[in-house]
Fold this sequence. Notes:
This protein has ten helices and 13 strands. By secondary structure, the chain is α+β, with helices and mostly antiparallel strands. β5 (128-137) and β6 form a beta hairpin.
Amino acid sequence: xxxxxxxxxxxxxxxxxxxxxxxxxxxxxxxxxxxxxxxxxxxxxxxxxxxxxxxxxxxxxxxxxxxxxxxxxxxxxxxxxxxxxxxxxxxxxxxxxxxxxxxxxxxxxxxxxxxxxxxxxxxxxxxxxxxxxxxxxxxxxxxxxxxxxxxxxxxxxxxxxxxxxxxxxxxxxxxxxxxxxxxxxxxxxxxxxxxxxxxxxxxxxxxxxxxxxxxxxxxxxxxxxxxxxxxxxxxxxxxxxxxxxxxxxxxxxxxxxxxxxxxxxxxxxxxxxxxxxxxxxxxxxxxxxxxxxxxxxxxxxxxxxxxxxxxxxxxxxxxxxxxxxxxxxxxxxxxxxxxxxxxxxxxxxxxxxxxxxxxxxxxxxxxxx
Length: 369
């Protein structure tokens, strides 16, 4: 899903090295995807411009938009669709049985037929193109990408490190705590929000603690935040689907949707049983502008993010910059909320008061919106 789609999915990474635009563009160009005409049985992979997934003309003109470098990590491959391969295999097996007077084919013969057919059909298949969109903010040393899957992130990390000679650090729950707020999650004691003793079954995850804390703030009406005297007040609203987790007896994950899951009896029961919040939809009202999206912990993957609408009649570069400004505002606001939580979490006196308040509130929390 594209970063400029009406509903975007993305993750944020940080890198340490100061990168010059011309140097990294040259590296991207050197590692551009090979010409599609050279595609054979082995996939092609490399960088491409945002114009199309096999465009190798990487330059200042094609990839430098405002303060961002805008590129794709592309992959071209051929594959035989499984349904087509099964059909051809069955045809070949029937022919093989007729020619050899057999009533069936054994496992070895079936595997040989399948391997031979795959080799024969593969060169006739049209190329399949895939791309991971990347926007690099060189000023802030941040990278935004729509590649939210683990394999996509691994591929991107390797390719970017090769081009930029610096590692990407995901701003997930642990990474953001360390990199943005100098908090070491491993130094914090596990937090249990339940009034009853859950023994050893406490989810020790800073991201889940943050989500549960934010849920409590929202449910108790403490959902207005101001991060500095000059910044606007931000109103935070949460909505379902609501996901919760605890790696212990019973269900590991609970997912609540439809109706009013945040105010449901099921949510209360799960929280009292020791589960913590791992995902919800979140909205920020910033000076009358509304930013909406879904987020999950501990990975902090943002999905279905919708910034305020912008002029759809502007050119592609202007549209891209508008969208990136919206995505940055959404993620910056989210990380600022996280920073407010971590400031409280790292202060043992303040955190003990918070834990006590949540434990007092939880048994009697209203079950209606």
